[in-house]
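*** Protein under study ***
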Amino acid sequence: MPLEIEGAPSGWPPRRWARVAAIETITPRVRRLRLQGEDLAGFELPNPGGHVKLILPAAGESRPAVPLRYEGRTAIWAEDAQQPFLRTYTPLHFDPDRLELEVDLLVHGEGMASGWVQRAQVGDEVLVAGPRGGWAAPQDGAWYVVAADETAIPAAEQVLAALPDASVTVLFEVADAAEERSIPGTEGHDVRWLHRGNATPGVPLETALRDLDLPGAPGYAWVACEAGAMRRIRAHLLHDREMASDHVVTRGYWKLGAADHPDGDYGQDDLGHGH
């Protein structure tokens, strides 16, 4: 059953123990973890593009420390505890019979999460918090654009699986050709892999979107990438393309220069508030 900690704030998503059962190298920068554990009983995948938090152990640890208790929203730790850290990921697949959850993790820069991914071993333990969020894809679009950089490709895979039989253009920005891979749900669609090379992250995606020839009938765009590029793309779709705001779904998965960009950056500054 989910972990219970004295004083934990009400409304927080459940935290479930899971161990690393397998690690697969998908591309030079992508590792697929299969997490397994009895605590995953009752877990359900979120709406397409939703997420979980993985609470990961500190360097040198194989299991994340757990707070002794909470006082308000403040965690109280044992004196010698090596505090864990958490990052947000999209759960790819969940097998309720085997109680196995698949998550793709990106070796991305020199941050704490990338370090953990590279040293993780079968048998290591993590805590899975969630799931939350996601997008219930409308089924009435004449066309769809799904655009993502490598951090958001797992979410894009789920979104693609939820779309109706319609014209779909898929744009994936990755570092280079070695990062291309087979993505379920792209069969029969117009799929374009954009190799970033030395370009600023998000610029190839932005350029490709600006160059797209979109049909006149109403459609939907789902875009997830670096937060600055996401805002520029959102502004282009809303103002230059005159798309309705409820037909444009944008997510800032990370931000240049920030170690742990907060969740819920939907780029909706144009609405006068964030979500």
Remarks:
- Residues 271-275 have pLDDT under 50 and may be disordered.
- The radius of gyration is 19 Å.
- The longest strand covers residues 15-27.
